[in-house]
Amino acid sequence: MIDDPVVLSRLLTFVTLAFHIVMATIGVGLPIFISIAELVGIKKKDPHYILLARRWTRGYTILVAVGVVTGTIIGFQLSLLWPSFMQAAGHVISLPLFMETFAFFFEAIFLGIYLYTWERFKNPIYHWLLSIPIIIGSSASAFFITSVNAFMNTPQGFDLAEGTIMNVQPLVAMFNPAMPSKVSHVLTTAYLTGAFLLAAIAAFHILRGKTHIYYKKALHLAMIGCFVFSIATIINGDIGGKFLAVYQPEKLAAAEWHFETEDRATLLLGGILDPDEQEVKFGIRIPYALSILAFNRPTAEVIGLNDFPEELWPPLYIHYFFNLMITIGMFLAAVAFAYLVFYYFNRFNSLNKWLLRAIIICAPLSILSIEFGWIMTEAGRQPWILRGYLTVAEAATTSEHVFEMLLLFSSLYLALAILLPIILIRLFKKKTVESEIENQNIIL
Amino acid sequence: MIETIGISILWVFLYGYLIIGSIDFGAGFYSYYAKVTNKKHTIRQVIDRYLSPVWEVTNVFLVFFMIGLVGFFPASAFYFGTALLVPGSIALVLLAIRGSFYAFANYGARESNVYLFLYGITGLLIPAALSTVLTISEGGFITVDDSNVQLLLGELFVSPYSWIVVMLAIVSVLFISASFLTYYANVAKDKDAFELMRKFSLIWGGPTIFLSFLVFLTLSTHNPEHFQAMVEEGWLFVLSLLAFLAAILCIYKRKFMGIAFLLVCFQYGFAFFGYGYTHLPYILYPHITIYENVTSPEMGISLILAFLAGLLLLVPSLFLLMRLFIFNAEYARGR
Ligand code: HDD
Ligand code: HEM
Ligand code: HEM
């Protein structure tokens, strides 16, 4: 295994993407809340919200910096590890990749300006306006990169004749069938994760006994975001399932351990599979639910794995990742809903200890859910790197030094993963909210 | 047509990266130097005020070049990708260390010597690593047998040409960055910083020209074809030399610092475009040419259109960034 470049390249890609995706998701998710907080602060003339925006921005900047360096690594590493894939991708799907770099430019330029101009404009609304390009830039980069990933799942927009790629239609490739459901799910989950991160920070401080109204404002603002985006996530996650049923039935079937094509299909949660007998023990079965998930009709027919040759089956472990993602998604929505119920029906205490604890847990859960979702998507595409055209094994580099590179990059990510929280905690401890409010170094 | 437009776009962005990247890398080194020699308050402040708002933008130039290369000339992804796994990964790790430690030191809580050291030293190692890609593109360091591409690391290590390019890269970084910081310190009216950076500009100016001559000399044996092409376009390199002499004169007389920096940009502009132009039609001697390996016209045209649309967005934003930070005397001065 240590000398199989295919396995090692997959591992290295996994490590890099798994690390980058955390920063990238937060990088996409936070700017809208920063922008909303600043706008509310300006409109209500409430310096607490301005301080909120400023403090969130500080943390955001450090995370984005790590996102930028890991993203740069990916941009090059894809060519280093998957040269044949990138050659093919260059021919057909380089348009969104190219446009993504403009989105990066746009975001980077305005983030630079935003950070260093808090007090430079007489009318604070001008400063707020600078946050709009940051939102557009980061969400657009997620849009473009996700359309590349969607293309890998449903390639189209070219013809293949004797090994050469012809009749390239860049826009058709970019707007492939997987794109709409993927992009919308990726964006809403990024906003959702951002919101829960911010809510969890506020909840943590309140639970620790901080009583300043600042924290309650922060919590409430973030929780509204959590609620909106958790509902949106469930809706477009469901659309994603329907997309799979039509375009990538083998992925859905593997994720559901659904072997025989049948109507009135049962949804399976958890369980332990006996792969030879194709039998499942201990799972929870929900009748008709898989047919509903796939086609919105309890009687619809869902294609099973046995309709595909076994060498094209995705790994069956993705079942667990899929289940975990959905369970977490339901839990996040439930917590957000409970908070709002508690808040608007004053009889309950919305700062209830248990609720606060649940909110804190939701932040790491949502990040895990991002990872699980990606593992389900990417591993579920196996054995293809470009579904139907190019397998992972054909695309990998032939270099003999991938193992050393795996060690090199893993140590880098390990170091960053250790340093990042230390730096962030130190940054926020040095300037506490209370001292900043007292010093009045927040002026409208 | 598409190949010409494509390679021109890429080369312009690589030139952009060369200039602003050099400023960034060199500034990191000077910042560390100022720290260890306790000149903290003079140049450090000037450097920080320039670097903080723009470092991310610098990085995007590099990413842009890479993605654009894959888009316009997909085969280069295959050749360079397979050959450069090891040196490429090392350069990436250095870039990552630099970027994240800059953020940690700058936005993070505490000033740490370790961060600053890493930041300074990577500023010299990265250009050294990146410049070897240009060396490799001259051919002779890559073997190809039925689609198996291999880099001859040993040859690269013993080649005088490759070492001279590395030295030229490092010296250029120090020179370009010093001449910019001289100008910036002048705008900021920081006398000490100005004198120090002026001294560095004068020190590093000579070696850049000397090493450029050596590059010419060694290239004549390493890749005679390219050398011959360069001789034919010799006027470009003469212009580069003239621009250099004029720049040094301005800096020496402490006059027209803005023009002096522009002249340095011209010095590198003439040399860089002269080098690139004569390198054509090869991207990688002798395997990849812009004619044979260009992408399909459909993709090429859509990339060019996307580029034009992107420019419409980018140019005004960059203009805003420059006006607010770089050409803003108030800001440079620290208020
Ligand atoms: C906070 C994160 C999060 C949460 C709570 C959910 N998801 Fe998700 N999901 C993702 C984060 C995510 C993701 C990481 O963003 C993925 C990976 C690839 C993608 O397109 O989005 C994903 C992929 C993904 C896919 C695969 C799409 C494909 O491979 O083409 C499906 C079918 C769903 N999700 C469905 C759901 C459903 C029904 C949920 C119900 C609650 C749900 N997700 C919650
Ligand atoms: C949905 C998944 C992803 C999202 C949402 C995402 C988003 C982001 C964000 C927000 C940044 C920071 C950009 C900035 O602030 O300038 C970033 C950096 C980057 N990402 Fe990702 N990314 C994702 C996956 C990928 C993948 C798979 C690639 C590889 C093709 C990639 C390539 C890059 C590159 C090259 C950068 C660095 C750009 C720079 O230097 O500014 N990203 N990404
Ligand atoms: C956008 C966020 C993305 C994330 C988080 C992500 C995540 C992953 C993960 C976890 C794997 C490992 C799967 C396995 O072990 O089987 C993987 C594989 C891979 N992904 Fe993605 N991916 C993303 C998008 C992309 C994009 C846009 C590209 C290409 C432009 C890409 C290229 C690859 C490649 C080349 C592999 C290795 C082949 C494989 O093992 O399936 N990914 N990705």
TrEMBL record, chain A:
UniProt protein name: Cytochrome ubiquinol oxidase subunit I
Pfam families, per the entry: Cyt_bd_oxida_I
Originating species: Thalassorhabdus alkalitolerans
Subcellular localization, as worded in the UniProt entry: Cell membrane
Transmembrane portions of the chain: 12-40, 60-82, 88-116, 128-152, 186-207, 219-237, 317-342, 354-376, 406-428
PANTHER family in the cross-refs: CYTOCHROME BD MENAQUINOL OXIDASE SUBUNIT I-RELATED, CYTOCHROME D UBIQUINOL OXIDASE
Family: Belongs to the cytochrome ubiquinol oxidase subunit 1 family.
Membrane topology recorded in Swiss-Prot or TrEMBL: Multi-pass membrane protein
Keywords in alphabetical order: Cell membrane, Electron transport, Heme, Iron, Membrane, Metal-binding, Transmembrane, Transmembrane helix, Transport
Signal peptide (from-to): none
Record's keyword annotation contains Ligase: no
Automatic annotation (TrEMBL), chain B:
Domain of life of the native organism: Bacteria
Places the protein is found: Cell membrane
Statement: the UniProt record of this protein carries the keyword Nucleotidyltransferase: no
The name this protein goes by in its record: Cytochrome d ubiquinol oxidase subunit II
Keywords assigned: Cell membrane, Membrane, Transmembrane, Transmembrane helix
Annotated InterPro entries: Cyt-d_oxidase_su2
Family as reported in the entry's similarity comment: Belongs to the cytochrome ubiquinol oxidase subunit 2 family.
Organism annotation: Thalassorhabdus alkalitolerans
Membrane-spanning intervals of the chain: 12-33, 54-73, 79-104, 116-141, 161-181, 202-222, 234-252, 259-280, 300-326
Membrane topology: Multi-pass membrane protein
